[in-house]
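Q&A log
Question type: sequence-to-structure
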Amino acid sequence: MSTLSAQLKESWALVEGRADQVAEYLYARLFVRQPALREMFPLHMDTQRERLMAAMARLVQAADSVEQLDSYLRRLGRDHRKYGVRPEHFAVFGECLIEAIRAHAGREWTAGHERAWRQAYRSFATRMIDGAAADAHNPAYWEAEVLTHERRTYDIAAFTVRPVIPLPYQAGQHVTIESPYRPNTWRPFPVANAPRADGVMEFHVRAAGDAVVGSSLVWKLGAGDILRMGPAAGVMTLDLDSPRDLVCVAGGTGLAPIKALVEELAKTNRTRWVHVFLGVRTREELYDMAALEALASRCPWLSLVPAVSDDPGCPHEQGEVSDVVASYGPWNTHDFYVCGSSAMVSDTLAKLRDMQVPPTRISHDSYPAG
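Response status: OK
Response body:
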């Protein structure tokens, strides 16, 4: 461990238990010094503070992994373009960040901690600025018109949009979306279709709990509305060079990127079998079965296995989807794609470890409630 990394971790340990207070102090100081920056942020800052502190913890823990940090920070810089962040904003943010950590570390804060944070922040900011500059040929965000909006269940909607400028992405990736009804609040949502010549993109969204963006997309969004979307991200994409058959495991609206992957494979596939397991609580949550069955009718290599966990009379498989997948095994010669809630993904990965599926053959993603 380098001296810089040791100083960062030592000083972060002094404030980690008060991370929310550190973030609150930081933003208070930032908005006093630069009031115009307040417009870049959502009205309610709870989630913003949580995400900032999670990012800081990640940076501190990975301070010795220069290559890993470089890639992450460049992506972060690219993503911050949609907020209107400019290079000159980094200096004042850094000053407020270090002031906030210093204030909450108390008398145990040292000159060594101060030097370490100033050195590390300069490195972090430089990489983010470079990442944003390298993406300057792309829009900071894409505006897209809502073409269709359909409520599939009480709390799930499927809708399509067409960006004014084509948004490049790969099947399996996600984009962040800002709802016109929740300005300055962005959440990631996977695209539910493979790239199309007409540029139309499909999304499946669930209104869950206090998920303010997702709820507005389900309850308020309508045809003709204009969304803003950030650049595509995510690595759960197809390995077209692999000869292995596929097992795709989806939970709820985690079906969206799985459906996109199957559509992409359908463009060229002639030899690989694809097994899609879809886990839901009740049959009513099988909101896209008609489209999936239509896809299966065109693709003889595609099989569908719905699984319900809380609907005893349903004719589909019963139980948690991870258990159903395991019951159909063994799968140690297949590639896996897994998407759903964090709990569902964790359960499925545990089952795959038990079945000795090599980690190199598993691609997965999870999405918090939006």
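Response note: The radius of gyration is 22 Å.
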